[in-house]
Amino acid sequence: MKISAPAILFLAILFTSGFYPEAAASDVAGPAPAGNISALKSQEQRLRDAYIGYICSHLGKAKDDVVLSRFAVSGNGTLPDGEIFLEPLRKGREDQLHGYVRLAASAGGENHTGSKIVLSGWVDVYGPVVCASRNLKKGEIIAEGDMYLNKKCVTRLNRNTLTDMKQAAGLMLKNDVIADNPLKEWMLKKTAVVNRGEIVTILAEIGGISITVPGKMLEKGGLGESVKVQNLMSKKNIYAKIIDGSTVRIDF
Questions:
Q1: What does the angle CA 220 – CA 226 – CA 230 come to, to the nearest 5 degrees?
Q2: Which domain holds residue 182?
Q3: CATH code at 242?
Q4: Cα separation of 36 and 221, whole Å?
Q5: Is the model's pLDDT at 219 over the cut of 70?
Q6: What DSSP string runs through 83-123?
Q7: Does one domain contain both 91 and 156?
Q8: What are phi and psi of 153, to 5 degrees?
Q9: Quick check: 226 and 240 in contact, CB under 8 A?
């Protein structure tokens, strides 16, 4: 195809003059202003700090004992300057501040008149857990040297996991436990310290006055358990708490 002389002249002028069609603003995405990026990061850090502070305060934990992941902000994502007020998104969930937690955030003074947004994240809480210091066998009575406290993520452990060694001391194992594994309530049972038919002392304390009478065990039991006992003086059957291997106490 032949190009006419006028067309050739027009193209020559076009390319030698440095003229190019201007790109539309929507076609070229320029970088976000540095000031906006800095403000967004500062806002997110402020919200994150408030979120972690609320969790630590209500659980009585240090910041080192709480790990936050998958933190997200929903809503308009901004709050005015000033104190941030937080509360569980669902009322009555103040004691469930681990795992996936959603908090409503607001600002604007005591009346919380400012914007409201939602903060969410996964909260891992670390704390002391009772672990076996050696391999333990079914039927063994747990002694102090058989366990130790180890810091673990309690969020991901069974709710029956023990956190105080007093909870296990003197109890009998229902099954084997491998060394360094956490101890759980269902693994343990109380051992009988008083058997049925044994003679014990029944203790009653009223207004600073102590009264004792002989009694006969009508059932076996472990420390702290309430069992049926016969008062040998009155021949009446009562319930009393086992204090030791020879004494039960009536609680009024």
A1: 65
A2: 127-189
A3: 2.30.30.760
A4: 70
A5: yes
A6: --EEEESSTT-TT--SEEEEEEEE-STTTT-S-EEEEEEEE
A7: no
A8: -75, 100
A9: yes
CA distance 248 to 202: 5
Residue 104 lies in a domain: yes
Choosing from 125, 142, 160, the residue where a domain stops is 125
Residue 184 CB contacts under 8 Å (≥ 6 apart), including other chains: 158, 160, 161, 162
Same domain, 56 and 104: yes
Q: Say if residue 54 is in the same domain as residue 98.
A: yes
Dihedral sign (CA 72, 77, 82, 84): negative
Alpha-carbon gap, residue 171 to 146, rounded angstroms: 12
Contact status, residue 77 vs residue 43, Cβ threshold 8 Å = yes
Rounded Cα distance between 105 and 138, Å, is 50
Per-residue pLDDT, 252: 76
* Structure tokens, 197: 């038919």
Determine the Cα–Cα distance for residues 75 and 89; give it in Å rounded to an integer. Answer: 13
Q: Which of 104, 79, 107 is nearest to 94 (CA)?
A: 104
| Residue 27 pLDDT | 40
Q: Give tens-digit pLDDT for 28-61.
A: 344 445 455 565 677 888 899 999 999 999 999 9
Beta-carbon neighbour count of residue 201 at 10 Å?
14
Side chain identity, residue 131 = C
